[in-house]
Predict the 3D structure of the following.
Amino acid sequence: MITHHSYTYWTPARYRQVGRLAVVEAPTEDVLDLDDLKLHLRIDHDDEDAYLMELAQAAVDEIDTPRGWLGRSLAKRTLRLTLDDLPPSKIYLPGPPIISVESVEYRNLDDELTTIDASEYESDLLAEPGLIWPKRDGFWLRDSWPNDIKGGPDTFRVEYVAGYESADDVPMLVRQWLRMRVGEMYRDREGTVIGTIQTQLTHFERALDNLRVR
């Protein structure tokens, strides 16, 4: 099942990029290792292993693409960006790091999906977010995509692979934040805590600010 999540980018060229982001192939690898997590929490029994991994997934979902506020893809997955209007000359790919662009398609005037050959566009996959644009024609930047694009919903699709190649490649700061977040949820199992004074650690609140993709 593919779930779409809406988002909007304003590009420097003042073209509004309105689209939906879907997970086509979900991650198959956990971001947090169970043994590592238990070591962090100082848990030496196996009674709550399944529960701990549920908490770990909840913590990942809180920050991971496409729903999370970090704006990054953690474990590797395939995403599909669908634009519901004529595409701008530069298209931003949410959820970096971007590993590869698998396909670029558009709906032509006959309402048929047409694949744009990879030789017809260029990309900067190291940018955050990633970026693709029509291939330069000599010294000039061609300003537009094919001229037979039909406007309206599901006009343009970009399918791409995003995320870190392995859990070990996820920035240590992100993994440490996730461990601490799991620790919070493991300790406080309800929405309110009665009769306890708690102080939020400043570095915990701001730890991921520099890694956030806005």
Notes: The first strand starts at residue 4 and ends at 10.
